[in-house]
Amino acid sequence: MPKKFRPKSWPLRVRFAYTGQEPGPVLAFSPCVTDRTMFEELGEARLRSIIDRFVDRIADDGMIGFFFHGVDRARLKQREYELAAGHLGADVAYTGRPLDVAHARHRIMGGQFMRRLKLLRDVLDEHQVPRHIVDHWVAHTERQRPLVTRDRGSECSAGPKQEEKP
Q1: Cα 47 from Cα 56, distance rounded (Å)
Q2: Please, what is the Cα angle at 37 between 97 and 146, to 5 degrees?
Q3: Is 130 strand, coil or helix?
Q4: SS (H, E, C) 24-79
Q5: In whole angstroms, what is the distance from residue 154 CA to residue 135 CA?
Q6: Secondary element (H or E) of residue 166
Q7: Are 110 and 152 contacting, i.e. CB atoms less than 8 angstroms apart?
Q8: DSSP code, position 142
Q9: What pLDDT, in 10s, does the model give residues 88-125?
Q10: What is the pLDDT of residue 11?
Q11: Is pLDDT at 30 greater than 50 in this prediction?
């Protein structure tokens, strides 16, 4: 009787690889079992390069850069690295303040949150990060939104709506 396949580690990490076929009655994706974390796929040096570029982009951005005036970039890069490495599967501890505490003094609007997310996507694309990692990273960032802003929307408010005159 053949042995059953057992993964080396639990939880089982499954990644889906595109088969190149058009979707139809047969699934267009096939599972690829891997013991590597997303952190291991990227590697420490590549992740640090991504974080360096990302922090520089947000700090220099015309829409949200003012939040980072006077902030030690090296320290910010280290904290962003710790957060990213942790949610990508590395055994790296985050040493910063809790996100809600760190962002409490800023009145971050939904549009500003979304601008940061757009810059993140741009940097991940520049670094040709695999799609499954981008999707995970974006979803993780969106789950952190309530800790960063109380603004649910992504539009800037122009004030109270004025009634139209007949």
Answers
A1: 14
A2: 35
A3: coil
A4: CCCCCEEEEEECCCHHHHHCHHHHHHHHHHHHHHHHHCCCCHHHHCCCCHHHHHHH
A5: 19
A6: none
A7: yes
A8: H
A9: 999 999 898 887 777 767 888 878 889 999 999 999 99
A10: 44
A11: no
Task: Report pLDDT for 74.
Answer: 97
Contact 35, 8 (CB under 8 A): yes
Inter-residue contact 63 to 115 (CB < 8 Å): yes
| CB-based contact 55:77 (threshold 8 Å) | yes
- How far is it, in rounded angstroms, from Cα 35 to Cα 18? 19
Lowest-confidence segment of 1-5, 59-63, 76-80, 121-125 by average pLDDT: 1-5
* Long-range interactions of 64-72: CB distance < 8 A, separation 24+: 64/112, 64/115, 64/116, 64/119, 67/106, 67/108, 67/112
CB 47 within 8 A of CB 85: yes
What is the distance, to the nearest Å, from the Cα of residue 21 to the centroid of all Cα atoms in its chain?
29
Rounded CA-CA distance 36/33 in Å is: 9
pTM above 0.85, yes or no: no
State the Rg of the chain over Cα.
20
For residue 40, the model assigns a pLDDT of 97
